[in-house]
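Quick log. Single chain, no ligands specified.
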Amino acid sequence: MNKDLTVGKTSSVLWKFCLPLFGSIIFQQLYNIADSFVAGKFVSEDALAAVGNSYEITLIFIAFAFGCNIGCSVITAQLFGAKNYKEMKTAVYTTLIAGGVLCVVLMAVDVIFCTDLLCLINTPNNVLADSKLYLDIYILGLPFIFYYNIATGIFSALGDSKTPFIFLACSSLSNICMDILFVTAFKMGVAGIAWATFICQGISCILAVVFVFIRLAKIKTTEKSKIFSWKLLGKISVVAIPSILQQSFISVGNIIIQGIINSFGSAVMAGYSASIKLNNLVITSLTTLGNGISNFTAQNLGAQKPERVKEGFKSGIKLVWMLCIPLTILYIFVGKYLLYIFLDNPSGTAMDVGIEILRILAPFYIVVSAKLVADGVLRGAEMMNKFMIATFTDLVLRVVLAKALSIPFGTTGIWLAWPIGWSVATILSVMFYRSGIWHKQHNKGYIKK
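-> predicted structure:
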């Protein structure tokens, strides 16, 4: 059901809204975790390296879907908070149309440049064929990824975080079963992993889009909404494009880093692939909670209640720190056993690399979580210039330092680049958050026209 985030006790409203989002992203990550688990356990270490290698490229395409999600979600939430339901529906329809066009373009890009991208990141010959096969099948399901992300953004904008959670829980659990079935019973190898993901994502996407239209039909307006608006597309793009650039450049940065890692051999690739799945589980969860704070911020600014944004930031910090502390302890002390989820009879190098990555990154989750909460507020307030500055600072530092530090310190130098980039970017994001209208004495009448 739709939920007005502009009324009620801030901490209670935000926590009830964000916790299902956290559950959703856990199940979303199960897609990739299941793929790596089955590849590493039931196929081979090379298969795990191939899936992990391909994953970095798929993140570029996911970045565009994520941008559509955020752009639509923020503008829809502002209009929902302002109770401008006619324009709100038009914003949704506009995003669905524009997102479809963008998706077709990206699919064409993959068809033309897939092999070149894999060669660009120094993919070893022993995993090149499987990496390309996985990517080719994955890209066929790109429309499902796009429209599912847009649908979940709409649900979140309407204050409903439970419906996407239900879809993802069912779909992700099904994906695990189908992965194992296709690989063990049908002997399909990496192709079976990709097709299982394709089918499950397709089902969840179709159900989500159908429910979006049902939900919109229940919101009555005095006039019929337009199907497309260039003006609203512009407003959506103001939020979506920086978000796409953020995620895309982070993905490009990760691809560059993946290229550096690949030069150390497939054993290091496998160890990195396993540990980075665990790392991404945390970071993506924190990012999703930040997206929830974006919707909270947008709704309250739409209702001209900027004073609630400051309260929301404090509640968001408490929420993400409650998540980070136990996960940090878990990764530092039990990380070795978690890596066995992905690695079956791993080489000593692969396991050593995985453990080292977790022990270097995990203590800094509490730092980067503060950045992602502040980023959520900045996006919800359409403060995209400042958001981009903090994001690109993190990216540039991580890429440059990964290359520079890998020379004297080997692979350890690559992992050390992460916490340095996170720390500097967190300082910037929090400073930018504190410059917002909610920190000023006279903060009424915020909404941009």
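Residues 441-449 have pLDDT under 50 and may be disordered.
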